[in-house]
């Protein structure tokens, strides 16, 4: 189990330069990314996605072959091209014609976690037409804590 600090460091390693700047700007503005909307089962995120091999998004066929050699279950992905940043794009062959996952119960953890709140910081995004959206908000817990702190400052206990 990772500590909170370890989790933050692990997250920072995945961030792109632009994503890291965005992360800092949000921190300065006391904001966090939250996910709004819902999935309408279009299947777009399974038909074009990037894969992370642990050292970042996969950029070439050799890196993908190495992933499949260690994790044969990844052979369900086929390369369909690359995005503007040079990261390979994949299509999952487990998607049915009507956009359903044919391996839903055993789908990958990253499928279960999609869309991850860190995607905007890692150079990733949502597919066109996705029912989810990334929102930047000041979390209620932060507002509550600050309100309580201010109240305590005004009325310190004797
Ligand atoms: S395993 Fe299922 S949910 Fe994951 S990418 Fe493939 S079709 Fe989509
Ligand atoms: S692209 Fe978005 S709306 Fe479409 S299946 Fe994936 S998560 Fe759901």
Structure write-up:
The protein is an alpha+beta fold and 158 residues long. It has one domain. 36% of the residues lie in helices and 15% in strands. The chain contains six helices and four strands, in the order H-H-E-H-H-E-E-H-E-H. The chain has helices at 4-14, 17-28, 44-47, 61-70, 109-113, 140-154, and strands spanning 32-37, 77-82, 88-92, 132-137. The strands form two sheets. A two-stranded antiparallel sheet has the order 1-4. Strands 2-3 form a two-stranded antiparallel ribbon. A hairpin with a 5-residue loop joins strand 2 (77-82) and strand 3. It is elongated. It binds iron/sulfur cluster (2 copies).
Give structural attributes.
two-stranded antiparallel ribbon, 36% helix, binds iron/sulfur cluster, 6 helices
Topology, element by element:
Layout: H1 4-14, H2 17-28, E1 32-37, H3 44-47, H4 61-70, E2 77-82, E3 88-92, H5 109-113, E4 132-137, H6 140-154
Antiparallel strand pairs: 1-4, 2-3
The structure holds iron/sulfur cluster (2 copies).
One iron/sulfur cluster binds next to loops.
């Amino acid at each position: 189990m990772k500590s909170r600090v370890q989790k933050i460091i692990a997250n920072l390693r995945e961030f792109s330069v632009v994503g890291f700047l965005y992360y800092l700007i949000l921190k300065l503005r006391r904001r966090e990314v939250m996910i709004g909307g819902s999935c309408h089962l279009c299947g777009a995120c399974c038909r074009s996605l990037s894969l992370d091999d642990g050292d970042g998004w996969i950029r070439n066929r050799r890196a993908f072959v190495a992933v499949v050699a260690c994790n044969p279950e990844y052979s369900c992905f086929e390369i369909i091209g690359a995005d503007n940043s040079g990261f390979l794009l994949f299509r999952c062959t487990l998607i049915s014609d009507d956009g359903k996952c044919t391996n839903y119960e055993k789908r990958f953890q990253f499928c279960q976690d999609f869309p991850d709140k860190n995607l905007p910081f890692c150079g990733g995004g949502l597919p066109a037409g996705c029912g989810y959206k990334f929102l930047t908000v000041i979390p209620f817990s932060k507002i509550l804590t600050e309100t309580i702190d201010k109240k305590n400052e005004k009325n310190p206990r004797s």
